[in-house]
């Protein structure tokens, strides 16, 4: 007599021989969805003000991704008959394993992002230290020293800005740069960039901008 698919002996065979191919495909599909949801994970992390999302919050996102993958499987033609057996204890255990793997991957995404922020902060600290210890480095090219003469800011890289402020000095410009960078860093951990507006030399300006938070400010 043929054994029923839900018999204890049949379930034990699944445990011995491993999961059927469709289950591994479902697992890989869930993991791919988590990788593609990096922006959603990081937005949730930022909204939590840099704190790791709690277990319940992580579980909600993971369950949402698993449901999306499950719905995608159901919409496929010739859906495997084994999908109908998910309510069995063995299958629930496998789902819990997949859920935990997705939560671990979510935490890995956040940890990688935090390391990136720490690297940006370190680079910024080094740049600020160089500004303080040495002559004023051009914030645009970050290679040559700035020269300020009669309110005109110049650099070998081609930067030329007339500040219309004869009393402008390297010390005053450095203080202004540091103040703007520090102000930006109070609400955004990314490293800002500096550029010169297009126009005539008399009308050019030095700008601070950040692609991460869309902030910008006129330095001179």
For the structure shown, list the relevant keywords.
elongated; 220 residues; single chain; mainly alpha; 6 helices; 3-stranded antiparallel sheet; disordered N terminus
Please give a structural write-up.
The chain is 54% helix and 9% strand. By secondary structure, it is mostly helical. The model is unreliable at 1-17 and 85-90 (pLDDT under 50). The protein has helices at residues 8-17, 21-36, 38-47, 55-75, 89-133, 170-185; strands at residues 147-149, 152-154, 160-162, 193-196, 206-209, 216-218. The longest helix has 45 residues, at 89-133. The strands form 2 sheets. Strands 1-2-3 form a 3-stranded antiparallel β-sheet, with no helix packed on it. The protein has a 3-stranded antiparallel β-sheet with strand order 4-5-6, with no helix packed on it. The chain has 6 helices and 6 strands, in the order H-H-H-H-H-E-E-E-H-E-E-E.
What topology emerges from the helices and strands here?
Blueprint: H1 8-17, H2 21-36, H3 38-47, H4 55-75, H5 89-133, E1 147-149, E2 152-154, E3 160-162, H6 170-185, E4 193-196, E5 206-209, E6 216-218
């Amino acid at each position: 007599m043929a054994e029923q698919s839900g018999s204890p002996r049949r379930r034990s065979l699944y445990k011995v021989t491993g999961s059927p191919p469709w289950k591994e495909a479902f697992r890989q599909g869930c993991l791919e969805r988590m990788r593609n949801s990096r922006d959603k994970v990081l937005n949730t992390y930022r909204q939590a003000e840099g704190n790791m999302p709690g277990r319940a919050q992580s579980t909600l996102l993971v369950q949402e991704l698993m449901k999306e993958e499950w719905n995608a499987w159901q919409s496929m033609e010739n859906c495997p008959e084994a999908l109908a057996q998910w309510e069995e204890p063995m299958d629930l255990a496998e789902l819990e394993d997949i859920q935990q793997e997705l939560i671990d991957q979510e935490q890995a995404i956040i940890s990688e992002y935090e390391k990136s922020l720490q690297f940006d902060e370190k680079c910024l600290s080094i740049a600020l230290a160089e500004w303080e210890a040495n002559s004023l480095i051009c914030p645009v090219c970050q290679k040559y020293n700035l020269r300020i003469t009669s309110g005109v800011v110049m650099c070998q890289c081609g930067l030329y800005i007339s500040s219309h402020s004869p009393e402008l000095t390297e010390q005053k410009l450095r203080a202004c740069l540091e103040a703007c960078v520090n102000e930006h860093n109070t609400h955004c951990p990314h490293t800002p960039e500096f550029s010169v507006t297009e126009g005539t030399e008399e009308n050019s300006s030095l700008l601070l901008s950040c692609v991460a938070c869309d902030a910008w400010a006129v330095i001179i």
